[in-house]
Amino acid sequence: MTIRRAWWKEAVGYQIYxxxxxxxxxxxxxxxxxxxxxxxxxxxLGIGFIWITPIYESPNVDNGYDISDxxxxxxxxxxxxxxxxxxxxxxxxxxxxxxxxxxxxxSNQHSWFLESRSSLKDDYRDYYIWADGTIDGPPNDWVxxxxxxxxxxxxxxxxxxLHVFAKEQPDLNWENPRVKRELFSMIDWWLDKGIDGFxxxxxxxxxxxxxxxxxxxxxxxxxKNVSGIERHLEExxxxxxxxxxxxxxxxxxxSAKEAYQWVxxxxxxxxxxxxxxxxxxxxxxxxxxxxVIHFKKALTLWQEALANGRGWNALYMENHDIPRSxxxxxxxxxxFWKSSAKALALTFMLLQGTPFIYQGQEIGMTNMPxxxxxxxxxxxxxxxxxxMLQTGLDEETAMAVIRRTSRDNARTPMQWTAEEFAxxxxxxxxxxxxxxxxxxxxxxxxxxPDSILNFYKEVIKLRNQTDALIYGxxxxxxxxxPQLFVYxxxxxQERYVVIINLSKEFASADLPENVRIEEWTLLxxxxxxxxxxxxxxxxxxxxxxxxxxxx
Length: 551
Ligand code: GLC
What we know:
Elements: H1 7-10, E1 13-16, H2 32-37, H3 39-45, E2 49-52, E3 56-57, E4 69-73, H4 80-92, E5 96-101, H5 111-116, E6 130-131, E7 151-154, E8 159-162, H6 177-192, E9 197-200, H7 229-240, E10 246-250, H8 259-263, E11 272-274, H9 292-305, E12 314-316, H10 325-328, H11 334-348, E13 354-358, H12 379-390, H13 395-405, H14 442-447, H15 452-464, H16 467-471, E14 473-477, E15 484-491, E16 494-501, E17 507-508, E18 520-525, E19 537-538, E20 543-548
Parallel strand pairs: 1-2, 1-13, 2-5, 5-9, 9-10, 10-11, 12-13
Antiparallel strand pairs: 3-4, 6-8, 7-8, 14-15, 15-16, 16-20, 17-19, 18-20
This protein binds alpha-D-glucopyranose.
Keywords: Carbohydrate metabolism, Glycosidase, Hydrolase
Catalytic activity: Endohydrolysis of (1->4)-alpha-D-glucosidic linkages in polysaccharides containing three or more (1->4)-alpha-linked D-glucose units
Pfam families: Alpha-amylase
């Protein structure tokens, strides 16, 4: 197999949620100068690019995912000059910068929407999706991903507009060529500034089914990967393809079977996709365990769909929309916390694809013990909470669900030190800091050779310098083993095998002939207080990486 090299295949990514990363103005909200002040930290970690979630002007109903001006920086975060400095300084360190591109919808405060809603005849009316109501109220029964009807009535013009997310996030009308022209020129404007690519938000929702369509079993189906979306995506691809950039689409509703069409090496719309299959398998119910067999199957499906140079994967276990992986896929219990966080690093970092680490994941940050709904900021979580109360659930039971499921778990400020405000700010931040900052923080972990942080550094270093772990093929071993995830990577004669116990119990493996570990050299392990050379007996959450000995 000939290797088709690309910088975005070789680099390890790091997602920054700026509100919670580093605050230099001490207003309790992170900022661009905060990111600049931590570039050395990211360089030292081995990061090749950062993805910054939206920093554009926004009324912040959905924390920046409701954009009111695509070409301005939100003043809470800083200025355009500071952004340009950030870009320059990152580039000097060899770190590329990708931005969030939110083009399914805008804020209801965007000038296009203000115009659009001003009259039925306005020139911008068709920038959004308007429809007359029916005797039952809204034009149809579609529901929003954030809860409630997907339609909002506008008193002024007596029509409804569509919003797949919050009512303050009206959906743009992609059937209008003017909308596309405006968006595409904005994209070019950012790329001309020298940014290195985009994470493309909610892109599988840009095409809507005919409004007569009735919501079926999947209530989001009328606006999720609807046939005809290809035409819009092809146009978008033509804009992207002119440059050597990284593009990763957020692709809820796209299956591994369709992956080739979306990210095929030749004609795909994006370089890679954030798929939702493996991540939806996390444990929403405390009593339930991770279903290791299903988890491996979901990951393997995507690995195989894009194998042999057909396409490329985006690898992740965390982002700003889901709870912390160590809490959901691993264990917060003191005895298991560290080893499970390290084990989870190896479950995704060395697969075929580009790994994305979410801020705080590299130190093993956990879910937040939210006490009341007052502690919550996320709009979808609040809607969900009040819906639960409506159905008769009491507050404590509803809060228990929120603690396990809210995306605010991932949004608590980054824990840099054990100080009062975790070295993030000098005052109470916009979202409470996790009380476990004393045990989990960057400073302490930097000084502890056995820390999760230092383990991540080793894994990143290993991947950065090993072609076989980047470009090699992927093979799943022991697919039916209920505890162990065993996979191989191979490039010509160079072979690696990764063995991870994803359970709290000891696990023994009957490894196949070709992965007899006596013939292999141990490169990396997450346990140093355990008799490692127990060969085929694995301690809870034990994880090892081996390389085949070539004489
Ligand atoms: C994406 C973002 C999420 C946001 C939504 C609406 O799913 O990741 O944070 O709320 O799109 O823009």
